[in-house]
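task queued by scheduler; priority normal; single chain, no ligands, no partner chains; default sampling; output format set to structure tokens
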Amino acid sequence: MRQAAAALMPLVAAVALAGCTTLLAGAPSNIYDLTAPGDVADPGGSRLQILVPEPTTVRALDTDRIAARPNPTEYAYLPNAVWSDRLPRLLQARLVETLQNSGRVRAAATPGQGLLIDFQLVVDVRAFEVTNDGAIADFAVRLMDDRNGRVVRSRIFRYGVGISHRDNANMVAALDKAMDLAFSDIVAWALH
């Protein structure tokens, strides 16, 4: 009996250690944020009030984990790194901020903030990830008249940015740059 118990001890210790490793691995060492472009100012103002609903996306991107695509049919996530919020909410906040930074709207807000809305800027996140070719930001955007629900216009915005070094900080910086390029163009397009 003693020999059986002694033989099981390494197995019990290994299972306990594996449990601790799993718990420790769940805590990311780095939490990353995105920054809205600040150089979209335009001297021409408007009286528009724009609502930005939370963007839609596939489940693999509807998370706080930072997506990578080792190949076109597989998702993975950067190790020890997460966004400061779920990606759709983070993109929503930064798009509102970009609209506000433009100086061309009376107001830009998210649902529930009590605006008399002129237009909605509806975004589908098609891709926001690191690939072997670089960082990709791909958004399908619709400008919708809030009074009658009709789509005024729609367009796809896709930007890729190269990555100099394959560490988390550089990959996130490239994603941030791709988002900045897309959001600057989205705002110019929507307010044209």
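post-processing summary
- Strands lie at 30-32, 49-51, 65-71, 74-83, 107-109, 119-131, 134-145, 151-161.
- The first strand starts at residue 30 and ends at 32.
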